[in-house]
Write a structure and sequence with these properties.
The complex is a heterodimer. By secondary structure, chain A is mostly helical. Helix content of chain A is about 70%, strand content about 0%. Chain A starts with a helix and ends with a helix. By secondary structure, chain B is an all-alpha fold. Chain B has a domain of about 30 residues. Classes of the chains: A mainly alpha, B mainly alpha.
Chain lengths: ~200, ~50
């Protein structure tokens, strides 16, 4: 099982990459499909980011050679707490639209609404963390020691996630404008309306 | 509030990537989590009309 720590290192990247892709998909629906995210939709994005910061924490410490079992456990804990918080919001939104005849919020993707998909991703994260925690005695993530293609790929994935979070900051400034919270059913960019643009 | 939460999350990401301070990462991350849950509480305005 010598390669297991390296496998775990890349599994953490898969976590980061998967949630980056999910949030890019949400952006596509927002900017191309013209569907504005509701307050609960945004809260689920925060759950995804909170959870992914746990994986990022593990990756970056492994890359610096500072990852210990305790810090690995801390990162996994952050991942589960973020996923649990996001799942709480997803469940609320699913229950809001669970009655027969309710069309749900937004257009379904592959037969299910985005909040239902979000709940599935949160459960996948929780299951993943449970499995890797049980396998912790076999090994904890270990980064490639030399600079090379693998380090570059790792940097690109980490950079993509940072860019996605930064893009969310810019998007929320336009969505929320000078208000404290998002409207329940947003129909445009508050900031542009408030500035009369 | 959403802007503050996302700004905190971006700060946490930058701190993790730059490896500045693990304590500050945990503090910003926890603050973002608490604010997120508070905002969720704010948006939950009525009990669901459901019975299981």
């Amino acid at each position: 099982m010598k390669s297991f720590p390296r496998l775990l290192f890349w599994a953490m990247h898969l976590w980061v990459l998967a949630y980056s892709a999910v949030m890019l998909g949400a952006f596509t629906i927002q900017f191309v499909g013209g569907e504005f995210p509701c307050p609960l939709c945004m809260l689920q994005r925060y759950g995804m980011i909170l959870s992914t910061i746990g994986a990022l924490w593990i990756i970056m410490q492994a890359r610096r050679g500072e990852l210990t079992a305790v810090r690995y456990a801390q990162g996994l804990g952050m991942g589960v707490l973020g996923a649990a918080a996001g799942a709480l919001v997803s469940v609320r939104q699913i229950l809001l639209h669970i009655k027969p005849g309710d069309p749900g919020y937004g257009e379904p993707v592959l037969g299910m609404h985005l909040y239902t998909w979000a709940l599935i991703t949160f459960y996948v994260v929780i299951l993943f963390v449970a499995v890797v925690s049980m396998l912790a005695p076999v090994g904890i993530p270990e980064a490639p020691t030399r600079a090379g293609a693998q380090r570059t790929i790792s940097t690109l994935i980490v950079g993509l996630f940072a860019l996605v979070v930064a893009a969310n900051v810019i998007a929320i400034i336009f969505l929320e404008g000078f208000a404290w919270v998002l409207p329940d059913d947003p129909t445009g960019y508050n900031l542009l309306d408030q500035l009369g643009l | 509030m959403d802007i503050i939460i996302l700004a905190l999350l971006l700060t946490a990401v930058v701190l993790v990537v730059r490896g500045v301070s693990r304590t500050w990462v945990v503090v910003t991350w926890l603050l973002a989590l608490v604010l997120m849950l508070g905002l969720f509480r704010y948006h939950v305005t009525s009990p669901l009309d459901l019975s299981f």
